[in-house]
TrEMBL record:
Pfam families: DUF389. This is TIGR00341 family protein. The chain crosses the membrane at residues 348-365, 371-392, 404-425, 469-489, 495-520, 532-550. NCBIfam families: TIGR00341 family protein. It comes from Algoriphagus confluentis. InterPro entries: ATP-NAD_kinase_N, DUF389, NAD/diacylglycerol_kinase_sf. It comes from the Bacteria. Keywords: Membrane, Transmembrane, Transmembrane helix.
Length: 627
């Protein structure tokens, strides 16, 4: 049975102390008040159970010898907050005492030393970063209001600073000058919610200190990270790209301007801090499972992603933007791709001709699967997205090259669609063709979504470019083929309707793609605003007839809903279709349980006109109801 000494705070209420002392089984070898306690009276063979405050426990740690120190266990105390959170101490004295008795061996414990001062929980460097972390928090729900208040403070101006970082280990020494919002350090990864959420290893006794460096490129990424960290701290989560992690023996951070830091919640100012694992050998019982002994390995995550060089200079020049700006490397790769896609190549022309041929045959066959096949094959994605980037960055060469490629693609598509129309002995306005000669605001919505998808997919290497190709060609190839069919038939209403849809989708995609690139940081607004305003103006021009068309669509739908299933003296109306709105021409089937004659038809027309309150032209189909 474990023997131990109980060190207690004499300021605790007498009744509480007496009640707890009676429950102890086994009883301690001796109960010692804080005032009578002397660390020199104990050796490494002794176990001390501390019922003390943060300040008193810290005082013991400061007096620890480098070796031959007694092992320590902790009981919850009203003023034991830092230690309780950093070590996972149970909130119940009974549970904490039982845990203390069950542990046969108490392992050594890494303590972080900051300029020679012991850090129990964590060190937070950077005023902006301190908003995210509070080492005294324990209960989630009780601190919810405090968390929410800190979350609101994230919506403020943030500026990255240049930090000089030195990492030193037995095998190497590394010095970096990086742009960062702040730095979080701890002696082990169980002392902070953010460490527990992002880093799987506890690092309790690996002899290394553990550091997170936050270098966001946008305010939005900070808000997103803060929301997750403050309200959804789940262990084993994915570390964000802008967060770097390193475990090391020695860590030095300095800044010429100086910086604000918080050591276990106590704020201070410094120009340089030296961090290392405390030389004292400390055996403290934590409230979580002790890790199995394993080979100590240094770890680095995302350290090479830290902003250095020109990127560091750019990020520290002003406040962080709301959305991230693309790096020079990202823009180079994307611009090279878009420049290549804007060129009029033989492959583009061949694919354009083939996709239009397939789309035209599919339209005549009234076959949606065939039309979809043409959409997948269409190569229009490249020059449209290139045009959007050219408009955004006012790149005359890219705009010209993209427009020329689009021009030849559209002309070639029209030619092949007209030729197929001439050699096809069909002149039927089927559903596939009719769906593309009366564009409305819903089609504009499809175009905008396609533009966003195309731009986003181009900016992300991990997303297949074919996804964007499908989305964009859905909005462009079929109306192009229908325009050619209209020309081949000599039906100008078909041609202009499909051409309007084609132009609307093209303008919508370009504007949406340009805005997406702007949000992703591929151009400053001052450079982009001219191209955006021109694109917006063209979109407004083609949107006006869409609004009228959408209003007609809504009116038709209202008339159909009003008449379908309604009862008039001569029967029930079914199969209502609107053939024309001006003048109003309606096609309807009337179901009657009696025989209808010629003189009834005018009466039926009058009854429908009375129901609608306006005159109509009527196409009537008779249906007989058999009972």
């Amino acid at each position: 049975m474990k023997t131990y000494y109980l060190i207690f705070d004499s300021a605790l209420p007498d009744e509480e102390r007496a009640s707890f002392f009676e429950k102890l089984d086994p009883q301690p070898q001796k109960r010692i008040s804080w005032e009578a306690f002397d660390l020199e009276d104990f050796s490494s063979e002794d176990h001390l159970l501390l019922w003390l405050s943060d300040e008193q426990c810290r005082n013991i740690l400061v007096k620890l010898r480098q070796q031959e120190n007694p092992s320590l266990g902790l009981l919850p105390h009203p003023e034991l907050r830092l230690f309780a959170k950093a070590l996972g101490i149970a909130s119940s004295k009974e549970k904490a005492f039982k845990w203390f008795l069950e542990q046969e061996k108490i392992q050594t414990f890494d303590l972080l030393s900051v300029n020679g001062e012991i850090c129990i929980s964590s060190l937070v460097i950077g005023e902006s970063l301190s908003v995210l972390f509070d080492p005294t928090e324990s209960d989630f729900f009780r601190s919810f209001g405090k968390r929410f208040s800190r979350f609101l403070k994230l919506f403020r101006k943030v500026k990255l600073e240049t930090f000089r970082i030195k990492l030193k280990n037995k095998e190497e020494e590394k010095v970096l000058e990086v742009a960062a919002m702040g730095i979080l350090a701890a002696g082990h990864n169980e002392s902070s919610l953010i460490f527990k959420r992002l880093i799987e290893d506890s690092g309790l006794n690996d002899g290394l200190l553990h550091v997170l460096i936050l270098a966001p490129k946008s305010l939005f990424s900070i808000i997103q990270f803060g929301l997750q960290n403050l309200f959804f701290p789940i262990k084993g989560g994915r570390i964000p790209d802008f967060v770097s992690y390193v475990s090391t023996e020695y860590f030095e951070v300095s800044c010429k301007k100086g910086f604000t830091y918080a050591l276990d919640g106590e704020e201070g100012q410094a120009e340089k801090l030296e961090l290392k694992v405390s030389e004292q050998e400390v055996s403290i019982l934590a409230g979580f499972e002790q890790p199995k002994e394993a080979e100590v390995k240094r770890k680095e995550i995302n350290l090479s992603r830290l902003p250095t060089g020109k990127l560091r200079e750019a990020l520290t020049r002003g406040y962080l933007p709301w959305v991230r700006h693309a790096t020079t490397e990202e823009f180079k790769e994307l611009f090279t791709l878009l420049k290549k896609n804007s060129e009029t190549t033989s492959s583009f022309l061949v694919l354009m001709a083939l996709s239009t041929l397939i789309a035209t045959f599919g339209l005549f066959a009234n076959s949606s699967p065939v039309v979809i096949g043409a959409m997948i094959l269409a190569p229009l994605m490249g020059p449209i997205i290139s045009l959007a980037m050219g408009a955004l960055r006012q790149d005359g060469i890219l705009i010209k090259s993209s427009l020329i490629t689009l021009f030849w693609g559209i002309v070639l598509g029209l030619i092949f669609a007209v030729v197929i129309t001439w050699i096809t002995p069909l002149k039927t306005m089927n559903t596939e063709i009719l769906a593309r000669i009366r564009p409305n605001l819903l089609d504009l919505g499809i175009a905008v979504a396609s533009g966003v998808a195309g731009a986003y997919a181009h900016s992300k290497e991990e997303i297949a470019k074919t996804l964007a190709g499908v989305a964009i060609s859905v909005a462009l190839v079929p109306p192009l083929a229908v325009s050619g069919i209209g020309l081949g038939w000599g039906e100008w209403n078909v041609f202009w309707g499909a051409a309007l849809l084609l132009g609307t989708n093209l303008a919508g995609i370009v504007l949406a793609a340009a805005l997406t690139f702007l949000v992703l940081g591929f151009s400053p607004f001052q450079l982009a605003k001219k191209g955006l305003f021109i694109s917006l103006g063209l979109l407004i021009l083609v949107t006006a007839p869409l609004v009228l068309s959408f209003r007609e669509m809504v009116r038709e739908n209202q008339l159909i809903q009003r008449l379908s299933g309604s009862h008039i003296p001569h029967g029930t109306l079914r199969g209502v279709k609107i053939r024309n709105l001006s003048p109003l021409r309606i096609s309807v089937t009337i179901l009657s349980d009696k025989e209808l004659h010629t003189e009834d038809f005018s009466q039926i027309k009058s009854e429908i006109e009375e129901s609608l309150g306006q005159s109509i032209e009527l196409e009537l189909t008779l249906g007989v109801m058999v009972k």
